[in-house]
């Protein structure tokens, strides 16, 4: 009987400890630097102030919702969504095959989760070489469809 009670107590204590471990809040699982003001969106003025103070300005590339969540929680200043998604996400050998529509899908996914960083979108190679009017049209199209983008990289 005493052996049974001892085993029962050990099993109960193990069950309690594993139960407590599974209730850890998600934000405590992901460590790293936290932004000073998480609700404030990064602007050019903010970046200029950091530069004048000699503080580092951070920029990271993200292609999808999960990576942008981590980028946002880490306090990154600038998020770049670039055409290298063609190789990293889609498995192509170069950045040439990605289309503007595919880039917009990546840009929208990042914009849904990255609330703080300055967002920079990339126009794929070959979409703007024919004329300056085409560049203007594409930039307006990208900025209209990706509401949170502040900059377009050519």
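^ Assign residues to that structure.
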């Amino acid at each position: 009987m005493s052996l049974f009670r001892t085993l029962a107590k050990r099993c109960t204590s193990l069950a309690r400890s594993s139960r407590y471990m599974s209730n850890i809040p998600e934000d405590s699982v992901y460590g790293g630097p936290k932004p000073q003001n998480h609700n404030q969106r990064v602007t050019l003025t903010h970046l200029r102030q950091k530069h004048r103070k000699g503080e580092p300005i951070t920029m990271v590339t993200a292609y999808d919702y999960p990576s942008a969540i981590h980028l946002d929680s880490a306090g990154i200043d600038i998020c770049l969504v670039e055409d290298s998604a063609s190789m990293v996400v889609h498995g192509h050998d170069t950045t040439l095959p990605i289309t503007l529509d595919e880039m917009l899908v990546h840009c929208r996914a990042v914009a849904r989760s990255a609330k703080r960083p300055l967002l920079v979108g990339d126009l794929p190679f070959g979409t703007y070489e024919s004329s300056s009017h085409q560049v203007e049209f594409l930039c307006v199209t990208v900025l209209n469809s990706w509401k949170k983008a502040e900059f377009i990289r050519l």
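The chain has one domain: 34-153.
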